[in-house]
Amino acid sequence: MNNDSLKTKLLETINIKRKEMIETANKEGYTSELAVQCSQDLDLLLNEYQQMLIEEKKPKVAPFHDLVHSMKLFTYADRYSY
């Protein structure tokens, strides 16, 4: 499954959970245990979606770039301190 279809499925799940939370809150009260649980579940789904968006915007770094960066962490003295 590609990233766009994963996001679409997650958005559908978010909307279903949002409706469930609103219905539960209206029936049982906003501070009922079930309404709070729905709210927490919705928060997790929204966090997951937000993380997907953040990951999409991260620049793709080549493995060679990572190697060069890690090599910069060593100093000249580190190489010759036996």
How would you sum up this structure, described in words?
The structure is a single chain. This protein has 82 residues and is mainly α. It has a single domain (3-79), classed as Helix-loop-helix DNA-binding domain (MYOD Basic-Helix-Loop-Helix Domain, subunit B), CATH 4.10.280.10. It has helices spanning 3-28, 33-57, 63-71, 76-79. Helix 1 (3-28) runs antiparallel to helix 2.
Features:
Spo0E-like_phosphatase; mainly alpha; 82 residues; single chain; Spo0E family sporulation regulatory protein-aspartic acid phosphatase; MYOD Basic-Helix-Loop-Helix Domain, subunit B; elongated
Give a brief rundown of this model:
This is Spo0E family sporulation regulatory protein-aspartic acid phosphatase. InterPro entries: HLH_DNA-bd_sf, Spo0E-like, Spo0E-like_phosphatase, Spo0E-like_sf. The chain is 78% helix and 0% strand.
Largest sheet: none
The assigned CATH architecture is Irregular
Number of DSSP E strands: 0
Structure annotation, total helices: 4
Mean pLDDT: 85
CATH topology: MYOD Basic-Helix-Loop-Helix Domain, subunit B
Reconstruct the topology from this structure.
Elements (H helix, E strand, L loop, with lengths): L2 H26 L4 H25 L5 H9 L4 H4 L3
Helix pairs in contact: 1-2
Protein name: Spo0E family sporulation regulatory protein-aspartic acid phosphatase
Pfam families: SpoOE-like (PF09388)
